[in-house]
Amino acid sequence: MTTPADVRLLVVRLSDSFGDFWPLLARDIGVPLVEWAPTPEELPPLGAAVILVAAGGHETEIGALLERLPAPAGIPVIAVGASVSHRVAAQAVAAGASDYFALPDDRDGLQDALAAAVQRRRAALSRAALAHLEAQAHAFREIVGESPALTAVLERAARVVPHGDATVLITGETGTGKELLARAVHYGGPRAAAPFVELNCAALPATLLESELFGHERGAFTDAKTAKPGLFEVAEGGTLFLDEVQHLPPELQGKLLRALEQKSVRRLGATASRTLHIRIVAATNTDLATAMQAGRFREDLYYRLNVVTLELPPLRERGEDILVLAETFLRRFAEQYRLPQPPLTPDVRHALLAHSWPGNIRELRNAIERAVLLSPPGSLALAELAGRPTRPTQAGTVPFPATLAEIQRAAAQLMLQATGGNRSEAARQLGISRSRLKRLLEGVPEGTEDETAHRDEAELDTN
After folding, report:
1. Topology of 140-312 in CATH?
2. What is the C-alpha to C-alpha distance for residues 266 and 232, in angstroms, rounded to an integer?
3. Where do you find CATH 1.10.8.60 in the chain?
């Protein structure tokens, strides 16, 4: 994050004219002074509140300098010369300068302009600091749950969050919240004010993926009519999130490794590299170690990404976090669709905890949203929660007249249908054991009433 030390005056010297004036000027506006003479090999220092181009006697060189001067967004560049020509001033502004002042006549105007730029920079830094603190406070609030399995991962993440250069690998099944954790790592850390850029490595073919990551220069290939920065450049200062990194083609795995090792990238068709100042967070829902052993993933890249691993547990291992998440989604969707918030009845709680949730949090969220929309207002229908709405019962579905065994079997089948095929829930609502439900569905004859009751009681004791 930027600090007050970044509020300083950078003087880029094209000439030594008025050289004694710059320290006095910096003192008067209350900022440190940094002076730099441009060279082909060296970039200017970063972190200035305002950049002043000192060009007394070299006014014609202002345009060429500004073309190669990488001024950060929001930082004004003010040109200063000795010429009072309006044409010189207009050319400097056309080349990209915020303003032009001629010394010594415009001394007071220059000082006022620099003081205003410094004040704006300080205000921007204060807002950024406040936003950063707010982001840190809220970064992990979106991750709901208190189970030991989740808490252990979040405690581990909290230790790496302050270290903005540390590479993080997030693993876990589909739907466990890997992107949410990646965002928390970014917005809770020192790079929160910079971009969070994500790329799904499975979403693009290899031919497009390389250009998307590294960018290209004009004419690098047939359709490259203009230059385009890659996502590495777009994420400058922030975090690049590579989701489903296991799908990265082998030829790009080597390029990614070089970018991480050298901390620089080169656009397609370019001859010069650009330095990187970003954090890499990768995510995968597969075992990269197994992919590495099978030759599908580079061993050196695996170890480079696997610096700090955060493994998100599946929802089925998070106990009553399922109910906490369900309550959260109920509030969210009831408010979103302007419907009364349904309660989590004992039947619904039991059904939620009994389900294995192979789709994890994503499946739970979709199930709750569907049930809120399709259930009678203010309630949650188990059939809608399961995604298998029951059909209206037609006359003759329960046979009558019929034997008791036939009626019981038909009732068991209807209850199983009503619970979306959940045998445990169907048995619970019928008030019988799961094994007795199985016998009813299969038409297995029951013994005497006493024998059956005794057997069911023993089964319930063991379930």
Report:
1. Rossmann fold (3.40.50)
2. 10
3. 316-386
pLDDT by residue for the chain (463 residues), tens digit each? Answer: 333 445 889 999 998 888 889 999 999 998 999 898 887 667 777 778 889 999 988 898 898 888 877 666 678 899 999 998 999 999 999 888 989 999 988 899 999 999 998 988 888 877 777 766 666 666 788 899 999 999 999 999 999 999 999 999 999 999 999 999 999 999 988 898 889 999 999 988 887 898 899 988 877 777 777 888 889 999 999 999 999 999 999 889 999 999 999 988 888 887 778 888 999 999 999 999 999 999 999 999 999 999 999 999 999 999 999 999 999 999 999 999 999 999 999 989 998 998 899 999 999 999 999 999 999 999 988 888 887 544 444 444 566 556 777 778 888 888 887 777 788 888 888 888 888 888 888 777 665 444 444 444 444 444 4
Q: Which fold has domain 316-386?
A: Helicase, Ruva Protein; domain 3 (1.10.8)
Element (H, E) at 326: helix 321-336
In CATH terms, 4-129 corresponds, of 3.40.50.1860, 3.40.50.2300, 1.20.1250.20, 1.10.10.60, to: 3.40.50.2300
**462 burial level (CB within 10 Å; 0-12, 13-18, 19+):** exposed
Beta-bridged to residue 52, according to DSSP, are 11, 78
How far, in Å, CA of 246 to CA of 242, rounded? Answer: 10
Q: What is the pTM of this model?
A: 0.60
Beta bridge partners of 216: 228, 268
The DSSP H or E segment spanning 401 is none
Element (H, E) at 310: strand 308-311
Instruction: Compute the distance between CA of residue 211 and CA of residue 231 in angstroms, rounded to an integer.
Output: 9
